[in-house]
Amino acid sequence: DVKVTQSSRYLVKRTGEKVFLECVQDMDHENMFWYRQDPGLGLRLIYFSYDVKMKEKGDIPEGYSVSREKKERFSLILESASTNQTSMYLCASSLSGQAKINYGYTFGSGTRLTVV
Amino acid sequence: AQKITQTQPGMFVQEKEAVTLDCTYDTSDPSYGLFWYKQPSSGEMIFLIYQGSYDQQNATEGRYSLNFQKARKSANLVISASQLGDSAMYFCAMREPRMDSSYKLIFGSGTRLLVRP
User: Fold this and answer.
1) In this complex, do B103 and A101 lie within 8 Å of one another by their Cβ atoms?
2) Which one, out of A87, A88, B84, B93, has a CA that is 20 to 30 A from the CA of A22?
3) What is the DSSP string of B6-68?
């Protein structure tokens, strides 16, 4: 029944490491999103993708990149992890098209990343 | 720019009572959608309810209802007969429209609700 899967629930990485966060969905959704969640700030959009190999910057893309080579998989990459990237990362997916817009997003369980 | 504001960082409610979580929004687009999500301590985001800007009636889903006041740009979530399992973080979100029929959501900062036995 699980529809959006994030590869790790908890992750601890060292400053300067290259970090990959993986997200896979099995609902054939066109759109996929990466958010980070911080106390008092809610969810902020990092990047999103509305099609394979397509990506757009969200509100806070600095220090991150993404990859979407297949429809079902959307990867978030921290090129050189820093302590201020310690956060909860949430992946989500959604259908395009007006008929489905009231369904909102389907979220993964989140990855809590700690950079030391 | 579109914006969602939740002014209550935390709230308490007694079990079996009703509670209202506030949400105001700002947009110049006549077509928009508003969502509420629940996030328990386990971390997953659970979709609760949706209100479209052209919907004539307030949305309801079981014990959840949305008090939609378009002129005031508010979309408050009302939870009736609170249960201990309602203790969670609640997020209000708005759909930001795009030309290509995809869309993205912008979120408020959230309200943490604690239900007292």
Assistant:
1) yes
2) B93
3) ---SEEEEETTS-EEE--EEE-S-S--EEEEEEE-TT---EEEEEEETT-SS--EETTEEEEE
The phi-psi region of residue B89 (left if phi > 0; otherwise alpha if psi is between -120 and 50; otherwise beta) is beta
State both tokens at A75. 């990867």
Distance CA B2, CA A2 (A): 32
CB contact under 8 A, A109 and B110: no
From first to last of the 116 residues of chain A, give the pLDDT tens digit.
Answer: 659 999 899 999 999 999 999 999 998 888 899 999 999 899 999 999 988 989 999 999 999 999 999 999 999 999 999 999 999 999 999 887 655 556 678 899 999 999 99
Q: Please report residues of B whose CB lies closer than 8 A to that of A33.
A: 104
- Encoded amino acid at B24, one letter: T
- Cα–Cα distance for residue pair A86/A20, rounded to 1 Å: 14
Enclosing H/E stretch for A2 = none
CB contact under 8 A, B50 and A104: yes
Tokens 């908890």 belong to residue: A10
